[in-house]
Design goal:
single chain, alpha/beta, TIM Barrel, four-stranded mixed β-sheet
Length: 240
């Protein structure tokens, strides 16, 4: 059985776009498409609607085969140390999703795929997603098809834990070695390797090199590069 590899990047904005673009070029040379996690609002008063260059870059990357996922609405307005959708009741989650969906449509980046900040979604958020039109949820330990059933059973889910290289990344050799060993085992056994990085970390030598090593190892074990994608039962083009 052939394994699969998904590489995702979050925190993309004007200040980190060049880091992401440089990394995307390295992935292009390896034949690895990216899953781009996009939030309409980020810290330091960033607003995607006021950043046409990042919008254009994201649209171009999607046209080249990358996937765009909604990655929350306004993490900066969330209480410190709490992921935006981790504890929301259904009504509030729906309001945030609708607001984010409007921005994504306005910028030409609308998507039916959702990856919550820190990969954590409350039961209320999970219940709200299908009612707003989302079809796929990429969570911390699994990828869920929201159009089949909404109880997140294994029948509609692909189990795989996200390996994150973000602001809390540890660059110690032992930790990096353990990360690579785990990736090697998963890829060898035909499993799904999910790597995630923040765009800011792509500008730091240690985390960037660790991610490149992880990608190369998965490819060496014949993992097939893919993106987050919802696949309908009928043979027509899915959302990405």
């Amino acid at each position: 059985m052939t394994g699969q590899l998904i590489v995702s990047v979050s925190g993309i904005k004007d200040e980190t776009r060049d880091f992401t673009a440089s990394f995307a070029e390295e992935m292009d040379s390896r034949g690895v498409p990216l899953s781009l996690l996009v939030a309409p609002r980020l810290k330091d008063k960033y607003r995607l609607v006021n950043d046409p260059e990042t919008q254009n870059w994201l649209r171009k990357r999607r046209s080249l085969g990358d996937a765009v996922l909604l990655h929350g609405y306004d993490q900066a307005a969330t209480k410190r140390r709490r992921a935006e959708f981790a504890t929301l009741p259904e009504h509030e989650a729906r309001l945030r999703l609708l607001a984010a969906d409007r921005v994504m449509e306005q910028t030409g980046l609308r998507t039916r795929l959702f990856a919550p900040p820190r990969w954590l979604a409350s039961q209320g958020a999970v219940a709200a997603l299908p009612s707003v039109g989302f079809r796929l949820l990429a969570g911390k330990t699994a990828i869920h098809d929201l159009t089949r059933r909404t109880d997140l059973t294994c029948e509609t889910s692909v189990r795989s834990r996200v390996l994150r290289i973000d602001g809390g990344f540890r660059a110690e050799p032992l930790w990096c070695r353990a990360l690579l060993l785990g990736i090697g085992r998963t890829a060898k056994s035909g499993g799904l390797v999910r790597l995630a990085v923040t765009a800011k970390q792509l500008g730091v030598c240690g985390p960037r090199q660790a991610l490149l090593d992880a990608v190369d190892l998965a490819l060496d074990h014949s993992a097939h590069p893919v993106v987050y994608r919802w696949r309908p039962r009928t043979p027509h083009v899915g959302a990405a």
